[in-house]
Amino acid sequence: MAYFFVFQNKTYMEEQSGGFLWAPKMNKDGKTFSHWSLMTSVKKGDVIFNSYNGKMLSVIIAQEDCKEAHKPDSFDTEALWEKDGWMVKAKYIPIEHPLIYKEHMSEILKLQGAKYAPYNSLGRGNTGYLFQVTDELADFFISKLGIANITENQGIEETIFKEIEDEVSLIPEETIREQIVQTRIGQVKFKQRLMRLECKCKLCGLENLSFLRASHSKPWRDSDNYERLDKYNGFLFCPAHDALYDKGYISFDEGGSLLISPLLDEHTQMLMNIDRRMRVTLLSGHQKYVKYHRENIFRENIELNEVGE
């Protein structure tokens, strides 16, 4: 899944009512621009955040891959555009309380990336139609909108699961298949859900979204589709603490106190920035998943773990 940003100040009403996005291949002078040709990168299931008069009025879900299409009849007033163009059939999800971009511009400028971004350094929209959005900026938008899972509401979540799993089904190694699926789905949608609870490393407090990873308590392979995306089934961790939790070298007791495997020597504990005095806050929804992690993933016994390795 990819994320995009579209400026629709001229065409929002026509595109929203028609259920599509459209951009010309070139203008009357025969010139083309990257913000038009980027349309060819949009695939089914991709998410597009719209801007109309400085506000996000809709989140748009691509219903199919981009295709060549003539200029819609409703665009006839736009004489500067040639008739040949690119179209994406799309579903528009209205935002109950539109997001005003200028109120969040400092965060947007930090997260949008340095190249081909929708806004310039002064916080003004760059001239153009469609722009790529970083995962970090998409996470930020979704957290502000309070949407746990955009595509779930459109009834296509299971389709996305099936398409991705079918795509990797011919890979013979199960572990590799799982890693690819988890990366494609889990590290985008699951991370968005975790951000609704907390936007920092559960243990050390690191807040830079670029370095935070979504870590499951009950692993992907052992969870059903609901559990895989349940915001209580894991935490945001920095890379070091993500690796420790994922491999079972740390866990938590019912009260949130840190448990450290006896397999982890004191020198490594110091280098990985963990201490037995650490404690986190666990909500009631976390308890069953942390219990699973503690009983099935955590390396509590040296002898048993050494035999199993």
Overall pLDDT metric:
83
Q: Give the end-to-end Cα distance, rounded to a whole number of Å.
A: 36 Å
Shape: elongated
Major sheet: 7 strands, mixed
Tally of discrete structural domains: 2
| CATH homologous superfamily descriptor of the largest domain | ph1033 like domains
Please give the share of residues in helix. 25-40%
Structural class by secondary-structure content: alpha+beta
What count of helical segments does DSSP give? 11
CATH fold description of the largest domain: ph1033 like fold
Keywords:
alpha+beta; seven-stranded mixed β-sheet; 309 residues; two-stranded antiparallel sheet; ph1033 like fold; 11 helices
Structural overview:
The chain is an alpha+beta fold and 309 residues long. The protein has helices at 12-18, 34-37, 105-111, 135-145, 157-167, 174-194, 225-229, 239-246, 266-271, 284-296, 302-308, and strands at residues 3-7, 20-24, 47-51, 55-62, 67-70, 84-100, 130-133, 213-216, 234-237, 250-252, 258-260. The strands form three sheets. Strands 1, 2, 3, 4, 5, 6 and 7 form a seven-stranded mixed β-sheet that branches. A two-stranded antiparallel sheet has the order 8-9. Strand 10 (250-252) and strand 11 form a beta hairpin. Helix 4 packs across helix 6. The protein is elongated, with a radius of gyration of 23 Å. It starts with a strand and ends with a helix. Mean pLDDT is 83; it is low at 151-156 and 303-309.
In short:
Helices cover 32% and strands 20% of the residues. The chain contains eleven helices and eleven strands. The chain has helices at 12-18, 34-37, 105-111, 135-145, 157-167, 174-194, 225-229, 239-246, 266-271, 284-296, 302-308, and strands spanning 3-7, 20-24, 47-51, 55-62, 67-70, 84-100, 130-133, 213-216, 234-237, 250-252, 258-260.
